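Table S7 (text form). Paired inputs.
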Amino acid sequence: MVQAWFMDTETTDQRLEHHRNPPEYVSLDDLYAKTGVEYFKINVDGPQADEALEKIRKERGYSYEDQITCSKECLPDYETKLKNFFTEHLHTDEEIRLVMDGSGYFDVRDGEEQWIRISVVRGDMIIIPSGIYHRFTLDSKNFITAKRYFIGEPVWLPYNRPADDMECRQQYVKRLSEGFK
């Protein structure tokens, strides 16, 4: 089961947990209310047969999927890619990740600019809304395989912070102030 918590502001090693002392955990309901990030537990042993995944794909119109493996052995220019993933950015589309193996962290900003770290493992699927500032890193195991879902052909372009003038950011901030539904 996914865990989320408020992070310390100082991070010397991005691959460690970095929670407040004592940890201040965030429930899935609060995670959604504070950020719009959605979580689903998916049966990855047979994702084509998993009703929850098929329902999500159909409702949201995800028509394209691929798979990425992040590890020193599989990802060209590994350290540079990890630094890029960890640079605070947003996307114009949702970011959907289903962890097939391994583990990692997604960090998202709440409405008060606090970092919330989301630990994901096998079977965790998160949907990060368009326009939210976020970043990704591996944990100390340095390995993750994840499926990525898109509506149509993938457009996976990160816009590094600041990108406050972008329409997707303005729409996200509006949704954040009005509450996610």
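Next pair, protein 2 of 2.
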Amino acid sequence: MSIVPTRDEITVAHSLISSRIRCTPLLDITLPDGTPVTLKLELFQHTGSFKPRGAFTGALTAAEPPKTLVAASGGNHGLAVAHVASELGIPARIFVPSTTPKAKVSRLAAMGAEVTVTGDVYADAFAASQEAAAQPNAMALHAYDSPATVTGQGTLGAELDAQLRSRVGEQRRTAAEAEAPTVLVATGGGGLVGGISAWFGSSARVVPVEPETCAALHTALQNGKRTPISPSGVAADSLGASTVGEICFAVACRNALQPVLVADAAIRQARRWLWRRTRIAAEPGGAAALAALLSGAYQPTPGELVTVVVCGANADPSDLPLD
């Protein structure tokens, strides 16, 4: 595979994994200001996030079938790797930081994975996973910065593209709308936004959305190089990469991506609004892209065809309102 995935590689990956993943649905909603928006409900993917796309692609394209899968994760990638290992009938060893929500750690254990909680951030868990990954016949699946992972996440872009094109035909939208949809994507290490942008190229406006407290891509683009940060905040468990991925950074530079930043309060508000309006219980990271619209951090132009990827559901729902 190329370092930056090509459309052909993403197409091949989609064919490879399509029988093992769900084609997640679209949902049309209207924002409080009257703006129509389409939600891509990827939180309905196996294990509650987009991550199985990359994990299946990595495992199924290995030169030799692995006998153990190893991953470091804030939770969602680990759940995906545990799911893939279970489907392939092999063990999984998952390393997570102490910031990982208990709901995710419990699910990992319930799925049969060997779970090690270590360090405070993803980088600590990744370092701890290296010894396990070096064992014979073990395969490490990177959460966001390997060609196979990013190619697999790009299949979401391919799937969404086909769904939007089908809708354009059905609803007879204008040619201008059909040519340049906008896709808002929550961004941490950048595997998802890198894959989606690699698929769309210039045929869509792909907008990375980052929490102000986990702005690895924004910081890298601002400095002209990948720069370590200290992630924190409400969405750090899923979007808290200490450094944006090399592949994402390359895609962002090539495609001139412009990240949008959102406050933790806006993410909490978006999560509550989504629950009240649709009864969809997204995790904070899963609601981050929607927060950009609800808070005004991203303001679409009249007639702009906007899709928001709701990418994760793995959080304790007990703090959501009853009304």
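The two ends are 48 Å apart (CA to CA).
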